[in-house]
UniProtKB/TrEMBL annotation:
Belongs to the LysR transcriptional regulatory family. It comes from Thioclava kandeliae. Signal peptide: none annotated. This is LysR family transcriptional regulator. Residues 1-58 form the HTH lysR-type domain. InterPro entries: LysR_HTH_N, LysR_subst-bd, WH-like_DNA-bd_sf, WH_DNA-bd_sf. Keywords: DNA-binding, Transcription, Transcription regulation. SUPFAM superfamilies: Periplasmic binding protein-like II (SSF53850), Winged helix' DNA-binding domain (SSF46785). It comes from the Bacteria.
Length: 295
């Protein structure tokens, strides 16, 4: 049984369309249909309900999909084990929102040139979510805020960027003392349950500030937009696309660190090295996100 045929069937079941699958896999719709027909003949089952503009898995197909996905995963792992030095196959990469819009476009642009056989699969999420997925083996690597605790021996971190805490407030308020600003405006709180937000919360506590909290958000882009609408003020890390922020005198002491976190040993070692090479190339090319990265 050809693993590529299984990949096409899995893609059709996920995308709901032979045409969309053909486009995603660089094939013709006729070629995808032929692959499915071969599988149906080999298994003696009808695998798809074909409709005018859609193709949906039959109940029998849905029952077989978990085993098919496992076969594909095992086959690709076997190929990687046979050629451990070749970067090829899937690379599951998690990324927090500020990385998605800053560094990730550069990675997506340059990875095909450095490792054309690597298939990047991106998972967005909070740092805590991505960390748990990494521990569970659901991700090969993650671009996240370093946790407020030591990493286990099974993981290692490469620091990419350090972001000091800064003040985000409407222009008319920026020259006021911080305590006065929060007397006049509510706090748009960077969610204290998030790792980055916990740092901002610690700053407020250490400086004896108890502002009225308008809302708590784990979305720096949304906080920035609300401040621009004069809804309040915020303490946020100096992320790459932030505009109109003012530095805090001791903001560096309350900064967050964004890192690439990976397993120390991985069957995707060649893929991970390709990712590191691409990130280093972005740094040398002057990528804004990596402008403050350690060498």
């Amino acid at each position: 049984m050809d693993i590529r045929f299984l990949e096409s069937l899995i893609a059709v079941s996920e995308l709901g369309s032979i045409v969309a699958t053909a486009r995603a896999q660089g094939l013709t719709p006729a070629a995808v249909s032929q692959r499915i027909q071969v599988l149906e003949r080999d298994l003696g089952l009808r695998l798809l309900d074909r409709q005018a503009n859609a193709a949906l898995p039959t109940p029998a197909c849905r029952d077989l999909l978990p085993a098919m996905r496992q076969l594909v995963t095992q086959a690709r792992a076997l190929e990687q084990a046979a050629k451990p030095s070749e970067a090829a196959g899937p690379l599951k990469l998690g990324a927090i929102s500020t990385v998605l819009t800053a560094l990730l476009p550069d990675i997506l642009e340059h990875m095909p040139k450095r490792a054309p056989k690597v298939e990047l699969r991106i998972t967005p999420g909070s740092s805590a979510q991505l960390y748990e997925a990494l521990l569970a083996g659901d991700l090969d690597a993650a671009l996240l805020v370093e946790p407020p605790f030591d990493l286990p021996d099974s993981l290692e971190a490469q620091v990419l960027r350090r972001e000091p805490l800064c003040l985000l407030a409407p222009p008319a308020c920026r020259e006021k003392a911080l305590a006065r600003i929060f007397e006049d405006l509510p706090l748009l709180a960077y969610d204290p349950q998030s790792w980055g937000g916990a740092i901002a919360q610690r700053y407020l506590r250490d400086h004896g500030l108890k502002p009225v909290v308008l809302c708590e958000l784990d979305a720096l882009e949304a906080i920035s937009a609300l401040v621009a609408r004069r809804a309040g003020a915020a303490l946020v890390p100096d992320w790459p696309e932030l505009q109109g922020a003012s530095p805090l005198p001791d903001g560096a002491q309350y900064g967050r660190t964004v890192s690439l976190v990976t397993p120390r040993t991985s069957p995707r070692a060649a893929n991970l090295q390709a990712l590191r090479d691409v990130i280093e190339g972005c740094r040398r090319a002057g990528c804004t996100f990596l402008s403050g990265a350690p060498r």
